[in-house]
Design a protein that fits this description.
The complex is a heterodimer of chains A (250) and B (962).
Chain A lengths: L1 H15 L1 H9 L8 H5 L2 E9 L9 E9 L5 E6 L4 H12 L3 E9 L6 H4 E11 H6 L3 E8 L5 E8 L19 E7 L2 E2 L5 H17 L1 H4 L2 H19 L8 H5 L1
Parallel strand pairs in A: 6-8
Antiparallel strand pairs in A: 1-2, 1-4, 2-3, 4-5, 6-7
Chain B lengths: L1 H14 L15 E3 L5 E6 L8 E6 L3 E6 L5 E6 L8 E7 L2 E6 L4 E6 L5 E6 L5 E9 L2 E9 L2 E6 L5 E6 L7 E6 L5 E8 L3 E8 L5 E8 L6 H4 E4 L3 E6 L4 E6 L7 E4 L14 E3 L12 E7 L2 E8 L2 E8 L4 E7 L2 E9 L4 E8 L11 E4 L7 E10 L5 E9 L3 E6 L3 E7 L5 E8 L4 H11 L5 H31 L23 E7 L3 E6 L5 E6 L7 E9 L9 E8 L5 E6 L18 E10 L5 E7 L4 E4 L3 H10 L4 E6 L4 E7 L5 E8 L5 E7 L11 E3 L5 E4 L5 E8 L8 E8 L5 E8 L1 E10 L2 E8 L4 E12 L18 E9 L5 E4 L10 E5 L5 E5 L13 H5 L28 E6 L6 E6 L3 E6 L14 H31 L1
Helix pairs in contact in B: 3-4
Classes of the chains: A alpha+beta (250), B mainly beta (962).
Membrane topology (chain A): Single-pass type I membrane protein
Keywords (chain A): Endoplasmic reticulum, Membrane, Signal, Transmembrane, Transmembrane helix
Subcellular location (chain A): Endoplasmic reticulum membrane
Chain lengths: 250, 962
């Protein structure tokens, strides 16, 4: 039984929390500015943002993403503070329910050489500017790669995500980004679990073989039910011979 | 062991939802219609006077025999789709029908009477050119098949090859036709384009080349298109450049004789390519010396070749179609000529003289909502007085077959356009007149007490009148024998039934013909043919206004888009009557990228349709002031997405108040690695009753119900079986956030996806295990709901939990859809169309990633089925018992007024309509429900209470006195 339970735990972890485990390992590269990261094989790309009153995107640098290439790509972020003008603008944009957009260039993370990682075009995402303000610039940015290591999408959410119209008085709250950054590769979808199923079946039959309790015949275990049934039948139909119990078996 | 048995019993009791129908229910709630497709070849079975068969071979690779009295199918053989099953030729002789299939791959002989296969032979490879029956000494015993490089002759009786011969110089000469005049020779005609014709004469006995001639013909490039053989083996060709007929005696001459049309006194249309039509009644005899010459789109001439001279027998001007038919020794020519705008007349003429036969006029009424006549198939027969009678089968552009008998009685019509349904919708029927009257009373604005009272009285009066009429009808019908009482469904007495089980099926076919079909009986209530539909059109059908807004008529809009140019047109119509709507749709000069229905309505309750053109400008339909104002108000919350699968680009846009758009997100999937094959959202009319699932420990696991979620399926470009994969991306359509990204390794398409509620089910081919597999993804928010009142994509910071499980499926599938009910309380089933023609209703319960590997008390509490890797197909899950649906291409589901019932239409070559009850009929009393018992028990109880109350009172009173 203990073995079975262990199996169960493994499966549940496999199936239920595959995403969560991924998240955990992806988050190891959060918080920017670590000088060690730059020395490893990697490169940096700009992370740009735009928030304009007329909603025409004008991207400016927000920081730089340091991407470590290879089999297990990781990412870290070094970003600037918001200037006073930007803070004011962000609040204004938030007041008219404008958008706060970010973009990163498309890159190929598995590239060996510097020239290969660059690709044409950008990946963009947005949140409402008011959510950015009300969350005091705490956002979660996730970079998604495909199987072969191409960056295919970026997403940004703020925590908390809602716009409740609360005023942010303190200018200091809008100075420093509090960013959680992660990079996610696709999860391997499970195939049909034939091996485990067969193993389970085998175990069950083995267990039955060992346990004499289980091997008791049907009659041995349910004789009282059958007897009761037979008596009941006899009472209801006195013409019926007491062999009526035999009918129960079929 | 016993535990297992008990468990199984328990499982059976809990999970076995029985779908099988009882014998007496067959055909009660379901119907099937079988089609054959657009007719390419047709032959009347003329071996017996009383034969009722029409043999048809169609462009859908179907060979069938129709009953010429009723139009029903005697038998039907459905071959493979695509070029492999393409029917190249149909030859008919006595009891045998010879078919050449798949570009000359197979030669088959069918028995016409019973539709059984006589024999089948595989032919040597080579592209097919022509086939012909070969007669000798008055009997037909062989069939000759001409391919690019050789000719082979087979016995009709068993298909064995009599001889096969290579064609001389087949690299340079393009052999196109084979001909036999019944004299022991087989002639093969080939052409070197713009140079000469080559005629090779083979001996029928041993395939020896008897003669080989080349004849100068620099203007000729295609023999079947411009030449026919008439009379004693005379090749007659029409030359459109010099406007002349050229004759060549195949047996004697080596040079063509040119006869200018002008010398016959004929003027030809300069733009028209004249064509010829001859007739060979029997392969063992020579063709007739009379032939038709078509000189213009509406002009035919019956000509005769007489000792090298061409004689005009009759000039048919105007004439739409002409055809020959033979019965016994007599051959007649049938000519269809336009009479007026709505009718054509067909007349018979004697083929030898061109004289009109008396009393042979037949009127063909042209459907104003149909297409023009395209082909005429004539069945001639000898009457008792030895005169010729005939019936015709007219084939029109809209793929309709109409069978007409003299003097114009339509015996049957077949709408073969329905063999290729592209998309469909089900629309509620309107209320009855009285119901509508009452509704209208509430709909109108109040204008004074007195008039309101009057209105109320008048509507009450109308209701009374209707009720009396109904009673009278009941009384009247009761007197008639039951067989005569038949509820004829017509467009006038259509009304919604009590539970809204009867609906109007609006079907759009690839030929551009629209149909309105009653879902209860399958009767076609209206049809409308849209001409000038491009051949590669994509259709999208949308219901803009339902029937719920009386007195405004319901309104459907069909978007027809040319796939190459992107240019689109709108057809707006009333789905109940099929009539074009009064509303003029906007002209769309720009290519259209995307269309979306908004939940916004204008003042006339029509939903707003937004069309995005290639300049990313948005136009609205209807575009009244009211709509534009509403759009301006809500613009900041209207998002849409575009998919460019050629570049792997998914981009999201937001509407601006000036109806321009701005891009807000972009996801790019590199096309070098994978290509997008599907983007599937959820159905907008879907309801989810339960926000969560109750777990074994009584806590609730909340579903992630994002209405904007898109399931994007990709396939790898690398098709190697070790490296190929299928990618599944779940993207929020508003924010572009990738919610989940998974790859199914060692898998390949074709992929079928169903996306609904909080789950995505997809099916793929596993290259590793070489089998079909199902996978299910379910999304859960977790034990707490982030914001239980409203879902907003802009405010859901936490990613959902993703659960996934896969299963083996023992069959390949054609299409997949989920059931849909009114309120979403009923459990869901997945309807799977199998290539075998079955439609399987698989409970979603079996596709549940929470199915446990090890059974625990909690999972049992939750009614979870223990995980088993294989999904077993149970025969009682087939909802269409023996009513197989050939080549099922799509399944449409619609909710009915009953929560338990879902209406299902499966379409492909056939159309099948039925109802399914995924959780059984929990809201319907059974047919054999004992009303008497329940009411008598109720009454008895009622009286018992009364009596006991009275007795108690008396007792109390007595006690008080004591």
């Amino acid at each position: 039984m203990a073995r079975l339970l262990a199996f169960k735990a493994v499966i549940i972890i496999n199936v239920l929390f595959s995403v969560c485990t991924d998240l955990a390992y992806c988050n190891n590269g959060r918080r920017g500015g670590d000088p060690l990261e730059t020395e490893m094989s990697g490169f940096s790309v700009p992370l740009e943002h735009s928030f304009e009153l007329d909603d025409v995107a004008k991207f400016q640098s927000r920081g730089s993403l340091l991407l470590k290439t290879g089999r297990e790509p990781s990412v870290s972020l070094a970003q600037n503070q918001l200037s006073e003008d930007d803070r004011a603008k962000l609040k204004e944009v938030a007041a008219v329910d404008g958008l706060y957009r970010i973009r990163v260039p498309r890159v190929f993370l598995q590239a060996d050489r510097q020239t290969e990682w660059q690709m044409e075009g950008y990946l963009t995402a947005f949140v409402r500017a008011c959510a950015m303000v009300e969350s005091h610039l705490s956002d979660v940015i996730t970079l998604h790669t495909d199987v072969s290591g191409y960056l295919i999408g970026v997403s940004i959410v703020t925590l908390p995500g809602a716009c409740r119209g609360t005023e942010v008085e303190d200018e200091v709250d809008l100075e420093v980004f509090n960013t959680t950054l992660s990079i996610m590769a696709p999860v391997n979808a499970p195939g049909p679990e034939t091996a485990l199923f067969l193993e389970r079946m085998e175990q069950e039959s083995e267990k039955k073989g060992k346990n004499p309790q289980e091997q008791k015949s049907f009659f041995a275990k349910y004789w009282y039910l059958i007897l009761g049934g037979a008596i009941f039948l006899m009472l209801t139909n006195s013409a019926q011979p007491p062999a009526g119990g035999g009918r129960e078996q079929s | 062991m016993a535990k297992l048995i008990l468990l199984l019993l328990e499982l059976c009791i809990i999970f076995c939802v029985v779908h099988a129908v009882f014998e007496d229910q067959v055909g009660k709630f379901d119907w099937r219609q079988q089609y054959v497709g657009k007719v390419r070849f047709s032959h009347f079975d003329t071996q017996m006077q009383s034969s009722k068969k029409v043999l048809v071979a169609t462009e859908s690779n179907v060979f069938a025999a129709l009953n010429s009295r009723t139009g029903e199918l005697f038998w039907r053989h459905v071959d493979k789709t695509g070029p492999e099953g393409n029917i190249d030729a149909l030859l008919h002789h006595a009891q045998d029908a010879i078919l050449v299939v798949g570009n000359g791959r197979v030669l088959r002989s069918w028995d016409v009477n019973i539709g059984g296969l006589n024999w089948e032979v595989l032919l040597d490879s080579g592209s097919f050119r022509s086939a012909s029956l070969v007669g000798q000494q008055g009997t037909v015993k062989h069939v000759a098949v001409l391919k690019k490089a050789f000719i082979s002759v087979h016995y009709l009786s068993n298909g064995h090859q009599k001889w096969i011969e290579n064609l001389p110089d087949s690299e340079t000469v393009d052999y196109q036709t084979v001909y036999s005049g019944g004299n022991g020779h087989v002639l093969v005609l080939g052409v070197v384009p713009h140079s000469h014709i080559t005629i090779v004469v083979y001996s029928m006995e041993d395939g020896e080349i008897i003669k080989q001639v080349s004849v100068e013909a620099p203007w000729l490039s295609n023999i079947p298109a411009s030449c026919v053989v008439v009379g004693q083996g005379i090749l007659m060709c029409a030359d459109s450049t010099t406007m002349s007929l050229n004759t060549l005696d195949l047996h004697q001459q080596t040079q063509m004789t040119q006869i200018p049309l002008q010398s016959l006194g004929l003027e030809a249309d300069p733009d028209f390519h004249p064509s010829l039509m001859s007739h060979q009644p029997n392969a063992a005899q020579k063709p007739l010396s009379e032939f038709f010459l078509q000189l213009g789109p509406e002009r035919y001439l019956l000509l005769q070749l007489n000792n090298g001279q061409i004689v005009t027998l009759r000039d048919f001007n105007p004439a739409l179609l002409a055809s020959f038919a033979t019965t016994g020794e007599k051959t007649v020519a049938a000519v269809m000529s336009p009479k007026n705008k709505t009718a054509c007349s067909i007349n018979l003429f004697s083929a030898d003289t061109g004289r009109r036969l008396l009393d042979t006029t037949l009127i063909f009424t042209v459907d104003p909502n149909g297409g023009k006549p395209e082909k005429l198939h004539v069945q001639a027969f000898l009457k008792k007085d030895d005169s010729v009678g005939y019936r015709v089968m007219v084939q029109t552009e809209d793929q309709t077959l109409t069978f007409i008998q003299q003097p114009g009685r339509v015996m049957w019509t077949r709408e073969e356009a329905l063999s290729d349904v592209v998309t469909m919708e089900m629309v509620d029927l309107p209320l009855t007149g009285t119901q509508a009257e009452l509704e209208g009373e509430f709909g109108k604005k109040a204008d004074g007490l007195f008039s309101m009272v009057l209105k109320r009285l008048s509507s009450q009066l109308i209701m009374l009148q209707a009720w009396i009429a109904h009673l009278w009808k009941l009384f009247y019908d009761a007197r008639k024998p039951r067989s005569q009482v038949k509820n004829d469904i017509s467009i006038d007495n259509l009304s919604r039934d009590e539970f809204n089980l009867q609906k109007m099926m609006v079907m759009v076919t690839s030929s551009g013909k629209l149909f309105g079909i009653d879902s209860k009986t399958g009767a076609i209530l209206w049809k409308h043919y849209l001409d000038n539909i491009p051949s590669n059109a994509a259709f999208k059908l949308m219901v803009q206004r339902t029937t719920a807004h009386f007195p405004h008529p319901p309104q459907c809009t069909l978007l027809i888009k040319d796939k190459d140019t992107g240019l689109a047109t709108l057809h707006v119509f009333n789905p109940i009557f099929g009539r074009r709507s009064q509303v003029t749709p906007p002209a769309l000069p720009q290519p259209i990228l995307q269309s979306l229905m908004l939940p916004l309505m204008d003042q006339d309750y029509a939903k707003v349709l937004l069309l995005v053109d290639d300049q990313y400008k948005v136009s609205a339909f209807p575009s009244t002031k009211n709509v534009l104002q509403q759009l301006q108000e809500t613009a900041s919350s209207i998002f849409f997405f575009l998919v460019d699968s050629s570049q792997g680009r998914l981009s999201g846009y937001r509407l601006r108040t000036d109806l321009s758009t701005e891009q807000v997100w972009e996801v790019v999937i590199p096309t070098e690695v994978q290509k997008i094959v599907f983007v599937k959202g959820k159905r907008p009319n879907e309801h989810v009753h339960s926000q969560g699932r109750v777990m074994g420990d009584r806590s609730v696991l909340y579903k992630y119900l994002n209405p904007n979620l898109l399931a994007v399926v990709t396939e790898s470009t690398d098709m190697h079986q070790e490296r190929s994969f299928i990618g599944i991306l779940l993207i929020d359509g508003v924010t572009g956030r990738i919610i989940h990204e998974a790859v199914q390794r060692k898998a390949r398409g074709p992929v079928h996806v169903v996306h609904s509620e909080n789950w995505v089910v997809y099916e793929y081919w596993s290259t590793k295990s070489r089998r079909k597999e199902f996978s299910v993804i379910e999304l859960y928010e977790g034990m707490e709901l982030y914001n239980s009142t409203v879902f907003s994509s802009l405010d859901r910071p936490h990613a959902p939990q993703v659960l996934q499980q896969s299963y083996i499926f023992p069959s390949s599938i054609s299409t997949m859809e989920a059931t849909l009910t009114e309120k979403g309380i009923t459990s869901r089933h997945i309807l799977i169309g199998l290539p075998s023609g079955g439609i399987l209703s698989l409970p979603k319960m079996f596709l549940d990633p929470r199915r446990p590997e090890i059974i625990t008390e909690q999972s049992r509490e939750e009614n979870l089925i223990p995980y088993a890797p294989e999904l077993i197909i149970r025969t009682e899950w087939f909802i269409n018992y023996n009513q197989s649906v050939s080549r099922v291409r799509g399944i449409y589901t619609a909710p009915s007024g009953l929560e338990s019932t879902c209406l299902v239409v499966a379409y492909g070559l056939d159309i099948y309509q039925t109802r399914v009850y995924p959780s059984k009929q929990f809201d319907v009393l059974k047919d054999d429900y004992d009303y008497m018992l329940i009411s008598s028990v109720l009454f008895a109880l009622f009286f018992a209470t009364m009596i006991s109350k009275r007795l108690a009172e008396v007792k109390l009173l007595n006690r008080a006195w004591r």
